[in-house]
Amino acid sequence: MNSVQDIWNEILNILSQELTPTAMKTWFSACKPVEWTDLRLVLCVQNEFTKNILEKRFAAKIKEAMKELFSCDCELTILAGEDEFASYMETKTIASKTDILPEMQGFTFDRFIVGNSNRFAYAAAMAVAKNPGGRDYNPLFIYGNSGLGKTHLLFAIGQAIHESDPKKSLAYVKGEEFMNRMIDSVQSHKMKEFREEFRNVDLFLVDDIQFIAGKQQTQEEFFHTFNSLYEAGKQIVITSDRPPIEMSLLDDRLRTRFEGGVMADIQPPDLETRMVITREKAAQLGLMLSDEAVNYISSNITANIRQLEGVIKKLTAYKDILNEVITTDSVKRAIEDVIRIGDDIPKPEKIIRETARYYSISEEELRGQNRARLQTEGRQVAMYLMRKLTNLSLMEIGEQFENRNHTTVLSSIRKIEDMLKTDSSMAAKIRDISSNINSY
Length: 440
Known about the structure:
The protein is α/β, with parallel strands linked by helices. The protein has helices at residues 4-16, 21-28, 48-70, 81-91, 119-130, 150-164, 175-187, 191-199, 216-231, 252-259, 271-284, 291-300, 305-321, 328-336, 348-359, 363-367, 373-389, 394-399, 406-422, 424-438, and strands at residues 32-37, 40-45, 75-80, 140-143, 170-174, 203-207, 235-240, 262-265.
């Protein structure tokens, strides 16, 4: 279900199984779904009389239908007539000139679980929310792998700033969307409108900026947008899957501006933090997990919070659809579609052994500091394979190579990923080594 209309259609299907066709036609045919955000459905009806009937006679049934769909308690707001609708649109939690994702309202600071891996990024985001536009934290550049909470902090900043000053305007855009919309504006001769949309806001939130690297015209436009906002004292917050220095195709002018603010990285959470996150996500869906189940999930899913959420949602489906008691076996089945577990995961020692054998170098050379071409490439390949074939975090991979830091490991992985896009011989090497790793 990708839109509020899709959700409302599913709710109507459930209601129609219990209510008569006459009741459905009389009270629901004119209902207009307005918004689905933070587990809240907003409906608009024609008049106060219809609103009162729905609230008194059918609100509980609508909430039951939503719970059947989403396996957790949801809220319902009903608006009567154009005046209430207009008032709601003026005072809704996020006001913006762009299409802010409805999910933004669920990502607040109090729902962000803080651990050693994200403490600085969280503190920096809080500082921006309290004093937007200050030169000390402008821009704020948050980077880290997918699924670790970058977008959560981005949205939380937007929420907090709006709550403290609803008059402040906000724009949110993904890097790829910025590029696509700019191209459309050029083709339709609407660049003036495009620039006004992004350059006349108090808070500019940009997600996944890495997608504009190498796109010269897009980078040029973004550069001028950035400068316009920065010189006007407006707050800019940017996220990326890597630091600016690792974006080889990023314009130098943009790189220096990104690095001129505060850069904060987010690393995969440690076990203790993952356990807290697991319990929190399960509670949001009304799912009770045993300590054993929590420990198993947290021990096996190490690098991506979205994967963890996916497992919990799958367990919720087991409980609600199959009426199944959640056991460790249930957890194992839920995890199988997300990550490799048990005997399927090769040991890092095996990956190092097979990679060294392929490159005809010693394991010590592969792990060590030798910077010769063969040793360097073999080391990068081994790091890449550990990331792809195991559940090890970047820090844990670095420990296998004389305690290299996570930035070095990430850079090596990116290097191989870039080569795989254009170098067929590298793809063949990866296939051969992987085959040897998995052959016995």
